[in-house]
Amino acid sequence: MSSLAVAPSAASPGPSGVPASERPPKNRIRRDWRGWMFVGPFVVFFFIAFIAPLIYAIILSFFQPQMVWGVSQGEQFVGFANYVKLFQDPNFWSGLVRVSLFLLIQVPIMLGISTFLALAIDSGRLYGASFFRVSVFLPYAIPAVVATLMWGFLYGNQYGIMASVNEAFGTSVNLFSARLVLVSIGNIVTWEFIGYNMLIFYSALKTIPVSLYEAARIDGANEWQVVRAIKLPAIRGALMVALIFSIIGSFQLFNEPNVLQQMSGNTITTYYTPNFYAFHLAFEANNPNYSAALAIVMGLVTVAIAYVVQLRGSKGMG
Amino acid sequence: MKKFHRAVTIVAASTLLLAAAACSGDSDDAPAGTDDVSTTAPADGSTGSGELTELTVWAWEPTLTAVVEQFEKDNPDISINLENAGGAADTYTKLDNAIAAGSGAPDIAQIEYYAVAQYAIPGRLADLTEFGAADLADTYTPGTWNSVTLANSGKIYGLPVDSGPMALFYNKATFDQAGVTAPPTTWDEFYEAAKAIRALGDNYYITSDNGDAGMATSMMWLAGATPFQIGDNTVTIDLGQEGVLTFAEFWQKLISEDLINTQISGWSDDWFRALGDGTLASLVTGAWMPANLIGSSPDASGDFRVAAAPVPVAGQKANAENGGSSIAMLASSEKQEAAYRFLEYVSAGDGIQIRVDGGNFPATTADLNNPDFLAYTDEYFGGQAYNEVLAQAAADVLPGWSYLPFQVYANSIFGDKVGPVYEGNGTLADAYASWQTDLVAYGNENGFNVNQ
Fold first, then answer.
1. Residue A20 placed within a domain
2. What is the rounded distance in angstroms from the CA atom of residue A304 to the CA atom of residue A313?
3. How many structural domains does chain B have?
């Protein structure tokens, strides 16, 4: 962040080399608005679609309607009251702990499998590699709601595949039970995103210059050593990107629990994930102000964790 | 399916919320933009002759399309703009947003009985007394009239559309197989029948439930409880009442002894399949069920029969409503005279027959006692004149029941509370107590003086 702000003054003051539109002009007389004409339309939509709702949510979270007999008597400024309430709300914490658990277990498994698959395809020893690549990627093209419905039918222990599995092994596993439903969701998300992450890793692997492999071979490195010394370090950047996407995705978990809820009954609560809780608060509890506070906090938590991960990741790279 | 629809329209809903915010932001002098809705004086007789009055109606009941067509033919001075928001939950969300924005609300909305108080108590719905609706009191079954008048509060907040007195829909083939020759009439008999059916095999259960709020509250109603009461300045919540606990104990016994299927969700694909193949032997639900069974569980054709809902004590005449909707006029409507004409047409006029023909279970006693209606049957029910049972069920509904003025929210968190019980953790009685704690807190936050 700070490096960006420092950049203009640190850059050489020479007139040539740096296009005017990329750097804020230091010279007031030479201020040129033509650049804004190009970015203007974007900025307008960016403001309407991103900044304005964000500001509105922040403002909302500091107010609370004064309710009398179910009728609002006007919004009152309540300061941080909604935030204080949120931090004392066990439902919020339970959702946050749940998505954190999900993050800690599902994301490493998913990225591990994706890395393995990318390396397998890249090894060139796979028969029908391009077919394999497309078929692993295919689930990503299926909308999450459809994928969840499909998996929900498979999970069903009355008439789904699980019913047959239970019958064959004489078990009575219920994948919708409170204990297992998070695992069931993790399986769906993993299935959906393995191919997507694999493709990111695979394209990173493709950018490695062949000369490195040649040099390794001359040095007598075996395939495992090539993987460890060349391939894994090379996809480290891609891994960081995928990790950050996955962190954001985990904290925003909504579709899968929402669709599974109607199939699994009441094992998925209204506060199952923070996003799910925010939705419930805004549309079922009619408390958009409190919901806004939750959304802001979750946004900040996500940014903070993603930032820390990125910081650590880039440190390791240097 | 409700929940699923909601998921699909979340984007649309949030867009609406933004729009709502934009509207209320414009008028600085009315920061909430809500209080003016409730105080708007009803416009009197603004329907000048010769002018076309346009009414906006938000409803999801499919038979209303035909009713609107006929109404417009019979009333050329009124034009109806019928909008379907996509179901009950979406309609309420839209309605809440329009009310919060202070504009964009319809003249008329379909509102389920359990949600009437939620809109009536904060003054969102017009009192129909001044239009002469009180004269219609005897037209309707006691249960539905009780619902639109909020347990005879002296005001009339809507007119009944359909009704759902509860009954026992049972698979006679499975019952016979289990040696249960007569349908259970009491809860004790139901329990014995449950054991007999459970003994048939792994997947056989007398019924299923995994924590449905509508079903639980209806069973409390049937048991004679009145856990929710709305007074002049207070709301009372008492889920520790005798009737509530009687039901909790009965249902707990069925759950603990694995006599009801707790792993199947109502309205799911599995549910209809299990009802179809006879492994789910019965259900206690509203009188609107036949069409759903015939349509979605065709395999059980010929096997199903209808009997009165079992009661706690032998010989008792008691029943409750489950589901069903009213049609109400918004207090903010400026065309109330015209709106009332439509309400009356739908609920008490020519609209009834059109709706009954479309499969609605009527709320009007005359239609319930119509010989053609009573004699009606379907091979699905083995030629039983099941409407006779259902008409009697409508007459037996106990008076005095009231829902909370925030029942939509209450039902939304019910599953959170009872969910663990259905997995064998805790008891229903404790879950209801915890439900009460949250409801009291929520009620007080929303300015209802809650007693418990």
1. no
2. 14
3. 2
Is A263 within a domain? yes
> Exposed, middle or buried, B317 (CB in 10 Å: 0-12/13-18/19+)?
exposed
Same domain, B442 and B341: no
In chain B, the largest separation of any two C-alpha atoms, in whole Å, equals 72
Angstrom distances, CA of residue A122 to CA of A115, A211, B6, B155, B391: 10, 16, 43, 75, 72
Q: Based on the fold, state whether residues B405 and B432 are members of the same structural domain.
A: yes
ipTM score for this prediction: 0.82
pLDDT in tens, B256-267: 999 999 988 898
Banded pLDDT at A160 (limits 50, 70, 90)? confident
* Chain B contact set for A69 (CB, 8 A): 121-122, 447-448
Q: Give the pLDDT confidence score for residue A28 in this predicted structure.
A: 59
Task: Report the gap between the CA of A45 and the closest CA in chain B (Å).
Answer: 15
How far is the alpha carbon of B152 from chain A, nearest alpha carbon, in Å? 19
Let me know if residue B50 belongs to a domain: yes
Do residues A199 and A133 lie in contact, with contact meaning Cβ atoms separated by under 8 Å?
Answer: yes
Q: Which residue has the tokens 């319809």?
A: B106
Q: What is the C-alpha separation between A269 and A291, in angstroms, rounded?
A: 16
- Cβ contacts of residue A256 below 8 Å, gap of 6+? A144, A148, A185, A188, A189
Give domain status of residue A129, yes or no: yes
Structural domains counted in chain A: 1
Residue B128 lies in a domain: yes
Those residues with Cβ within 8 angstroms of residue A59's Cβ, 6 or more apart along the chain or in another chain: none
CB contact under 8 A, A255 and B7: yes
Residues B181 and B158 occupy one common structural domain: no
Parent domain of A178: 83-317
Q: Is A4 exposed, middle or buried (0-12, 13-18, 19+ CB in 10 A)?
A: exposed
Are B299 and B190 part of one and the same domain?
A: yes
Of B35, B412, B445, the CB nearest to A280: B412
Task: Verify that B150 and B126 share a domain, yes or no.
Answer: yes
- pLDDT of amino acid A23: 56
CA distances (Å), origin A83, targets A87, B3, B332: 6, 28, 34
Least CB–CB distance from A266: residue in B422, B445, B447:
B422
Give per-residue pLDDT as tens, B242-301. Answer: 999 999 999 999 999 999 999 888 988 889 999 999 999 999 999 999 989 999 999 999
* Residue B117 sits in the same domain as residue B226: no
CATH number at residue B310: 3.40.190.10
Task: Report the CATH number at residue A284.
Answer: 1.10.3720.10
- Do B172 and B158 have their domain in common? no
Bridge partners, B55 (sequence order): B80
Phi, psi of B330 (to 5 degrees): -75, 140
Assess whether B124 and B268 both reside in one domain: no
Mutate to test the interface with B, among A283, A287, A290, A291 (most CBs of B within 10 A): A283
User: Which string of DSSP letters, residue by residue, matches B198-216?
Assistant: HTT-TT-BS-B-S--HHHH
Contacts of B442 in chain A (CB under 8 A): 285
Distance CA A293, CA A86 (A): 8
Q: Which domain holds residue B405?
A: 166-320+400-451
SS3 per residue for A101-167: HHHHHHHHHHHHHHHHHHHHHHCCCCCCHHHHHHHHHHHHHCCHHHHHHHHHHHHCCCCCHHHHHHH
Give the up-direction half-sphere exposure of residue B166: CA atoms within 13 A in the CB hemisphere.
27
Residue A56 lies in a domain: no
